[in-house]
Write a structure and sequence with these properties.
By secondary structure, the protein is an alpha+beta fold. It has a domain of 230 residues. 19% of the residues lie in helices and 50% in strands. A six-stranded antiparallel barrel has the order 4-5-8-9-7-6. A hairpin with a 2-residue loop joins strand 9 and strand 10. Helix 3 runs antiparallel to helix 4. The longest helix is centred in the first third of the chain and has 29 residues. The termini are close together.
């Protein structure tokens, strides 16, 4: 449930911070009053400094409470570049680390994002609402409880394509995994690149306050394409999910793994499977490929499903899915 509260908080902060920046820029630039991005997200900053064409917001932060969890996103200093020639477009530069924290009866969580460069481009509608956001960063380091992830380059785009639907794209280059998350050779500690195109439905306005509100708004999460390259391994996938009455993910998807032998070798090197199991699985894949008339036994395509709180592949249960919020069957 803590994960669900954190996801909801990040989504709320994402929406609120960008709108707050746009509102402050509009207030200084044209005298238009703020649009009150969300009634249940508190947005504030310590001081406003204007030196045309730049507007500086110091101590920028968002906070709120979700599923009895208090949360805060400290964005620090944001430098906004204004333009008379293009008033519907804003350039934002963040000069301080991004700090996120959550605490409450479900537990505590903290994370800090450091970056050599971190900025955003905002496109606004005529009424001042944020239509889309593109964040770019390089030299990123995300530090959380017992993990540290380094990313050489990142780009995230959020586009409001229709009422309550956001289109998302994510692109990462050279992701260095924490030591405890790594497999053995030939899959080293760096994922070469990852790209995802997807969407979120049911995000308002108004923005749902929690997982139950998202489900009531007929919320859905979709991935139209996912591409990953990790050493010799490449993977593709897609899928769609919603929440059931217990606020657990339900849905289905497809995936393709190229060079499954690299996965087996890495799993054996990390002692996740034995050498005998590695050989047995390889032999089974070779036989299956011959039965199907396929020449490449190292390419595996399959489907997965999520239903009744269980993740399954080929009908086999792989994991029990957690509830992402409080419900009649999952009390907090």
């Amino acid at each position: 449930m803590l994960a669900g509260a954190i996801i909801s908080a990040i989504l709320a902060a994402w929406h609120g911070l960008w709108q707050h920046i746009a509102d402050e820029a509009a207030l200084v630039h044209s005298g238009r009053s703020a649009s009150a991005a969300s009634a249940w997200v508190s947005l504030e900053h310590d001081e406003t400094l204007l030196a045309e064409p730049r507007l500086t917001l110091n101590g920028l932060r968002a906070s709120g409470r979700i599923e009895s969890q208090a949360w805060q996103w400290q964005a620090g200093q944001a430098i906004v570049t204004l333009s008379d020639a293009a008033p519907q477009h804003l350039e934002v530069l963040f000069t301080a680390p991004q700090r996120f924290s959550a605490s409450g009866p479900m537990g505590r969580a903290t994370a800090v994002l450091w970056a050599d460069n971190l900025g955003a481009r905002l496109a606004l509608r005529k009424d001042g609402r944020v239509a889309n956001v593109t964040i770019t960063g390089d030299g990123l380091t995300l530090i959380g409880p017992q993990f540290e992830i380094a990313i050489s380059e990142a780009k995230i785009t959020s586009e409001d394509v229709s009422n309550g639907v956001l289109r998302l794209t994510l692109s990462l280059a050279t992701v260095s995994l924490p030591v405890d998350w790594r497999f053995g050779a030939p899959l080293d500690g760096n994922i070469d690149k990852a790209k995802m195109v997807g969407w979120i439905e049911g995000v308002g306005p108004p923005l749902p306050i929690d997982a139950a509100g998202w489900r009531k708004a007929e919320g859905a999460l979709g991935i139209s394409s996912l591409d990953l390259t990790w050493g010799p391994l490449s993977a593709q996938g897609n899928g769609r999910a919603t929440l059931d009455k217990a606020l657990k993910l339900q849905g289905h998807g497809r995936f393709t793994l190229n060079r499954i032998d690299a996965v087996l070798e890495a799993a054996a090197a990390a002692e996740l499977i034995s050498a005998n199991w590695q050989q047995a699985i390889s032999t089974a894949l070779d036989r299956l490929a011959r039965v199907r008339g396929e020449e490449n036994s190292q390419r595996v395509t399959g489907r997965f499903s999520m239903a009744n709180g269980v993740l399954r592949w080929a009908g086999l249960p792989l994991a029990v899915l957690p509830a992402l919020g409080c419900s009649e069957t999952a009390a907090c």
